[in-house]
Design brief:
Rossmann fold; Trna Endonuclease, Chain: A, domain 1; alpha/beta; five-stranded parallel sheet; five-stranded mixed sheet
């Protein structure tokens, strides 16, 4: 057994389900390599349970899947004694049910079907058999836990979570596993003996996010920039060509998802639904809804409603760090270096340039939105209900008296107050100049005018470094949030 880093919420859910002693049907899904299998196997490795595990084979034939199934039953229930391979999934699950019948009644049994979409291909008959045995037998068994897991989020959502057939409303719990937070990333690296400063961890996170399998490639003794260069810009690096595999492994129609992602990547502040439809030419309706929901559940995008602009409707923005990093940096260099090797220190030649700072600013903003709870905690408003989003006003064309403005993050609170947040990525402690202070006050004036809010306004500065707290800075900003706050525990 190895240590499970983070995942407190998921562990508590699993502990609660075990303690209840009822039959449970748990769905676990999330993007590729986020640690779904690891979580389940490590959690149940020290529990008093018979663990039956079947992992689907990508593009495997039904006969191949059934052969492995017979081996798994033999290993879990019959001490690896050879078993005849069942002819179909009805026979296979009957064989499994018979094995469970021979198990003492007080013994807990956990059935873990991993990579379910690969098992339940269109003509396999697996889902039909699963529906039958869950509804007629398994759901009545005390101490039986059925866990189905898959990386193809859209398939899991359509066929299991929102199933319309025999599995409708049969799910007792679901886990949409997300990438590590900054704190969990730091804990994971330390668990592997890698001691990096929070600034270096932030640099890594902006490029590859909190995907455990990606973080596993981080080498001890190398800086964040050195690791990024090795992982992302060497032809044999793990993430050099990961993007090509990622969406094809998750979705049955990957090109549709890639089209949506590429469209959203055009605009750092996100797109409205109408803008997205106009660019992608994907018709509005259920087909688009499912794909957007799948991307959100897998942690690629987030849905938000701009504060003060509800009439503009729902907007969408990419929040997956690696996806943005690939489209911004890796893909262009691949296109421009066909047939040649990248320079050994390519990433070192990019950092500190203007385009790098622009990207870093957007990447840091996205990370702040992923850590909203910690920002609210640092501000002492975590107990106050509030609407949270960015805010922007576009000035009307040909109207020189109408000023536009964009505020990085707004907390519109129920206690008649609003926190207007300026998010700044800096390598050194942030210094507020008189010119920048004027920009801040212009934003405030535009916000007051366009939002027509009568609430008390507080300016908050969120930085990736410390702050030089001059008198000017203190006059403008009432509260400060630094990188240290984003690494705190909830």
């Amino acid at each position: 057994m190895e240590q499970i880093i983070g995942r407190q919420k998921e562990i508590k859910l699993l502990e609660d389900k075990i303690s209840e002693g009822n039959s449970e049907f748990i769905v676990v899904y999330g993007r590729r390599r986020v640690g779904k299998t690891y979580l389940i196997k490590q959690f149940f490795s020290n529990k008093k349970t018979i663990l039956f595990e079947q992992t689907g084979i990508n593009n495997g034939s039904i006969s191949e899947q059934l052969a492995i199934f017979a081996q798994a039953i033999s290993h879990s229930f019959y001490q690896d004694a050879p078993l005849a391979v069942p002819l179909n999934w009805m026979d296979a699950l009957k064989l499994l049910t018979t094995a469970m019948d021979k198990t003492p009644k007080n013994k807990r049994i956990t059935l873990f079907f991993d990579e379910l979409p690969w098992l339940a291909s269109a003509k396999s008959g697996f889902l039909k058999a699963l529906e039958y045995y869950w509804n007629t037998n398994w759901s009545y068994r005390k101490k039986l836990i059925l866990i189905v897991c898959g990386s193809a989020a859209s398939w899991m959502i359509e066929n299991i979570i929102y199933a319309k057939g025999g599995l409708h409303n049969r799910i007792t719990a679901k886990i949409a596993l997300q990438p590590f937070s900054l704190t969990e990333t730091e804990q994971y690296l330390r668990y592997r003996g890698i001691q990096l400063t929070q600034q270096h961890i932030l640099h890594l996170y902006m490029a590859i996010g909190g995907i455990p399998h990606y973080l596993k490639s981080i080498k001890k003794g190398l800086s964040a920039h050195q690791n990024i260069n090795n992982i992302c810009f060497h032809s044999d690096g793990l993430l050099f060509s990961e993007f090509k595999i990622l969406f094809h492994s998750l979705y049955e129609d990957p090109e549709t998802y890639i089209t949506i992602i590429r469209s959203l990547a055009r605009k750092a502040t996100g797109l409205s639904r109408s803008e997205l439809i106009n660019i992608t030419k994907i018709p509005d309706g259920g087909y688009l809804n499912i794909r957007l929901r799948s991307l959100e559940d897998a942690g690629f995008i987030r849905t938000f409603l701009p504060v003060g602009h509800t009439r503009r409707g729902v907007h969408y923005k990419i929040i997956d760090e690696y996806t943005l990093f690939y489209l911004t940096w890796i893909e262009p260099i691949i296109k421009n270096t066909v047939g040649t090797n990248l320079t050994e220190h390519y990433w070192d030649s990019i950092i500190k340039k203007g385009s790098w700072y622009s990207w870093a600013g957007h990447a840091f903003e996205s990370i702040c939105f992923k850590h909203i709870d910690l920002i609210k905690k640092a501000l002492g408003i975590d107990h106050i209900p509030s609407l949270c989003s960015d805010w922007q006003y576009r000035s009307e064309k040909n109207n020189t008296d109408d000023q536009g403005a964009q505020i990085d993050l707004v907390f519109d609170r129920d206690d008649n107050c609003v926190n207007l947040c300026e998010i700044k990525y800096t390598e050194k402690p942030f210094v507020l100049t008189k010119e920048y202070a004027k920009i801040i006050m212009t934003k405030e004036n535009v916000y007051k005018k366009q939002s027509r809010s009568k609430k008390q306004l507080f300016w908050t500065l969120i930085t990736a470094n410390d702050v030089s707290k001059s008198d000017l800075t203190k006059n403008i900003f009432s509260r400060f949030v630094t990188l240290k706050d984003l690494f705190s525990t909830r």
